[in-house]
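Sample entry (257 residues):
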Amino acid sequence: DYIRFEKMTLKRTGTNERYARIVTLGNGAHRNVIEDCEIIGFPVNTADYSEDQALFFDIKGSIDNYNSIIGNTFLYGAQAIVMYGINQNSTSNQLNLVVSGNTISGQYGDAVFIQSAQNLTFTYNKVTNSSPNLNNNLVTLYKVQYMQVTHNEMHKTGGRFRKGLALEFCVGDASNYLNVANNIVSCEVVNNIQSYNELFAFSLNYGQYVNFNYNSAHLYSTGTGAATYSAALRMNFSYYVRAVSYTHLRAHETEAD
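Predicted structure, serialized as C-alpha cells:
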C-alpha cells in the first residue's frame, strides 16, 4: 500500500514475448500511484497472446482500491491496463480507480480492460491501435458501477476491430447516472471482415442509467462493403439512457482504388 512510482522508465527486457508484465497489483494493494512513467512492453504481433503480456495487471480474485494511473505512456504489450477485480460475477467491486491522462498505443488486444469496478474515473486518455486482431476492442469496461468516462480520444487505424469504447453491463441508478461525455472515437474498418457484425465505435450493452452526451464517433472503411455491418453507436438492452445534448455520429465507406 501507499507506493508511488513517478517519472520512471519501466521497460520489459528479454526476447520471450509470452511474458511481458511490468507492474502487477494484488492481495489488497490499496492507494498506490503510478504517474508520469514510461511503461514499455514487448511488441506482440501474434494471435497467440495472453494476459501474461499485459503491462499493468491486477491479479484475478484481488480487491485493490483507490489506485491511480495518471499521465503515463504505455507502449506495446498484449494489453496496457487490465483490472479484473474478484471475478465477473462478483458483487464486490474495486473502488475509486483513477485512469487519467495516459497515452496508450501499440497493444495487440484490448488496450484497456477494466472489470468489476465502482466509482471509476477514466478521463483524458489517448488510446491508439492498429492491431490486426479481429476480436479486440480499444477500451472495454465490464460490470462497472458509477463512473466518469470523459474527454478521452480513441483511434483505431488499419488492422481490425470490434468496438471502440465497449460498455458491458455498466449501471448507475436514478440518482447517480453514469457519465459518458466529450469522448472522440475514430475507427477504420478494413475489408475482408464483413462476416462479423459487431463493428461499433460506441457500444452500450445491457447498460442502465447512462448520460451519453457530446460524444463524437467517426467510423469509416477502406474496402468495398466493409461498413455494411457497422454502426457509430449501438445500444442493446440498455435502459434510462439520456442523450439530451448534441452527439455527432458519422459513418461512411470509402472504396479502395
